[in-house]
Predict the structure.
Amino acid sequence: MRQLRPIIRDDSDIEWQQVCGCEILVPEEPNTFGDFWTKEAIRRAAYMFMEYGFAIDVNHDNEDVSDKIKVVESFIVRDGDTEFIAGSWVVFVHILDAALWQSVLDGELNGFSYEALVQFTPAQLTTDDTGARNGVTEPD
C-alpha cells in the first residue's frame, strides 16, 4: 500500500482542498500478496475503473463511501515523471467527509489499495535486489 500524500492549501481566501493521492498499482513491483502487475494490465485496470465507476470503500469493509470520497484525478504515469514511478496508476481523491479527512491528517488512513477479481498468470520476476539493506533501526 502506497503512502498518501496530502495536498493542503493554506491560502487565506480558500479552504483546504482536502485532496490526497498516491500510486495504486506500480508495474513489476510485488505487492503484499507477492503478485505483480504489468504496465499493460495496470492501464487496463485504471481505464476499467474510470469507465465503470466502481465503488470506493475504506479499510476493505465493502461499504461504499462514494458520497464522501470523489476521484478527481486518475492517470498513468509517463516516462520522465519525477514524482511517481513510470507506468504506475495514480489516483487523487477529494475527501468530503471531515472525519475521514482528519484520519488522513492523523496518519490513520495512509494509503490506497485495490480490490479486484483478476485472473493470475504464473510469471517470474527478476530483479537486481540483493536483499541487503542499510539504515538505522529504532527500538520497539
Notes: The longest helix spans residues 39-52. The two ends are 22 Å apart (CA to CA). The chain has two helices and four strands. The chain has a mean pLDDT of 81.
